[in-house]
Amino acid sequence: MDGNGRWAKQQGKARHAGHRAGVETVRSVIEVCGQHGVKVLTLFAFSSENWQRPKTEVKMLMELFFTALNREIKRMHKRNVRLRIIGDISAFSDKLQQLIRESENITAANDGLLLQVAANYGGRWDITQAARKLAGRVESNELHPDQITESELAQCLSCADVPDPDLFIRTGGEKRISNFLLWQCAYTELYFCETLWPDFSKDDLLAAFQDYAGRQRRFGRTAEQMQ
Ligand code: FPP
User: Fold this and answer.
1) Which domain holds residue 26?
2) Tell me: the pLDDT tens digits for 37-72?
3) pTM of this structure
4) Any idea what the CATH number is for the domain that residue 170 is in?
5) Is residue 132 in a domain?
6) Within 6 Å (CB) of ligand 1, which residues are found?
7) Contact status, residue 97 vs residue 89, Cβ threshold 8 Å
8) How many independent structural domains does the chain possess?
9) Residue-by-residue DSSP string for 78-136
């Protein structure tokens, strides 16, 4: 969800106005995904590296997560959305951690769109915490090092029970993954668009779906093998 800061600057506003406008886009993207049969939507809200931003911006983002979650959770529940936060939430305030747990509990039985919000998340963090779990199991003789396979490691990642993403969308013109779902994006189709996140509309999202529909996913095979 990149481009909030630049959007605010274009409007002659402070960066936090961009993040607030970004929440409106989050709402509409959830709605459109729900309507189009998307099973899992993962939004990158705050990376492990975002703590390095100015203190005032970090504080504002934490407050925004709290108010947005507090305000939107009923609407999500009504729309049958199941919420899950991925990332190291232990770094957040007790109040925010509690709201996250409550929100996840309220929506736990919903079977519509699974909305994963990556907060204090990093792909490297995810792989590291998975390695730590495996090391613990080796130490307790539950697992032999030879038994560490890709699937064993994948089962220790944050979204172990969820298929790898089909489509990755980054708004705001930058062409990088920025430590998002590194392991899970191995064969994900990448889509970059110039639109700044607060301006990212239903049509922009549908254009990304359309582009994805034209891709041939080969997973290492040849084009001929796919016919
Ligand atoms: C990146 O744009 C955006 C963020 C770091 C924050 C995104 C968070 C939201 C939209 C709030 C979401 C809330 C919930 C509850 C999911 P940027 O600031 O890097 O933009 P720039 O590159 O133009 O400076």
Assistant:
1) 4-212
2) 999 999 999 999 999 999 999 999 999 999 999 999
3) 0.95
4) 3.40.1180.10
5) yes
6) 1-6, 19, 22-23, 26, 43, 45, 50, 64-65, 68-69, 117, 172
7) yes
8) 1
9) HTTPEEEEES-GGGS-HHHHHHHHHHHHHHTT--S-EEEEEEEE-HHHHHHHHHHHHHH
